[in-house]
Amino acid sequence: MPAAKPPVTAVIVGAGHRAMLYASYARKHPEELRIVGVADPTEYRRRDAQAEFGFPAENCFDSAEALAARGKIADAVINGTMDHQHVPTSLPLLAAGYDMLLEKPFAVNEAEMWELAGAARRGGRKVMICHVLRYAPFYAAIRERLAAGTIGEVINAQYTEHVSYHHVAVGYVRGKWARRAECHATMLMAKSCHDLDLMAWMKSGVRPVRVASFGSNFQFRPEKAPARSGTRCLLDCPIEPECLYSARKHYLDHPRRWRFYAWAALEDEKNPTPERMYQHMRDESPYGRCAWKCGNDVVDHQSVAVDFADGSTATLNMIGGCSKADRTIHLIGTTGEIQGSMDAESFVVRRITPAPGGPEYSEETVDLKVSGDTTGAFGGHGGGDMRLVADFVRFMRDEPRSISCTSIDDSVNGHLMGFLADRSREEGRVFELPGPR
Questions:
Q1: Cβ pair 209, 308 in contact under 8 A
Q2: What's the mean pLDDT in 4-23?
Q3: Do 68 and 207 fall within a single domain?
Q4: Hey, which residues does 306 pair with through a beta bridge?
Q5: Residue-range definition of the domain harbouring residue 255
């Protein structure tokens, strides 16, 4: 019997919600992954990561650059920094010899994208992008059906992402991604590069060639604020009790739903009292501002149309402010179609079956309600989070990977579609995608 392989060792870079979630795989599977260090500018996050994973204080760094200067102390890094920090933090770590699990979007513009992809290629580094929806059983099963030729060649693909009203408010109106000058990423790239990656993946091997897009900030503008609204929900707003976007209703009544964002400023206080949380939301927090008066400048809805090299087409409609969050997909092929809802974790396969006096098509329902278990065994994103980390371990060990596995080169087309879609929206032009580099 061959000897058991040692665990892959990794350093957390940017110890926020996403990186710590991926790193948590090591607690359940210590034989596969071991966390040996952290790099983060915030002392209490370094301290918390050290306490959780038990590595020595000498493996705590205040920056990616400091970690890189130390030399290679692990096999890989789990890079969960903010979008605009991905490339600046990744380049020195790749140069130091680290492989990488890197959060999406892996770059915030086309020049950065080519720079990082080129650095990974030249250094022979393994860089896997966190396109977690590829790992949701819902999408993986659909991709397997396409690979098997179940519906023939795809003629048209229709994707929707319905972003809930409270998600839009916390992320793109009041939060980290509300102003492009600060986050450097558009809402399309920050929220829907998952969906653009799925679009490219479902047409794997066929290059997207043209992109057009439209969208705007339709709802969250000062001139659309409700009559008599104040500037802060709990401080000076007489209509707060009936407002759909009341900070009390979104964050105090649901203190855990968006705790990594709405309560990030109180992280170091450990178990703040309800009175302290109320005072913080009333007087200090950016999440306590009127949703119509936040100065946000990103879209709240956007439509993207893509033309592929084989003549097929695809669309993505991202709509923020929906009552119910969901992602849907409808693929129409030459011999059938696949249509489903990620939230429902099921899809229907229809096949053309002409017969005298018979039905015009057959229909099969595929139910994948395996990721909604209350144990959280596979994490969020439709059960994709922990499956992604498991595949990264296999990637690092040169073991057979799943159909969902992605390298940085696999992610380029999805990112290109997003960057050019945003340019199309801003400039009112159709853009052609450049060929491979």
A1: yes
A2: 95
A3: no
A4: 211, 314
A5: 222-288
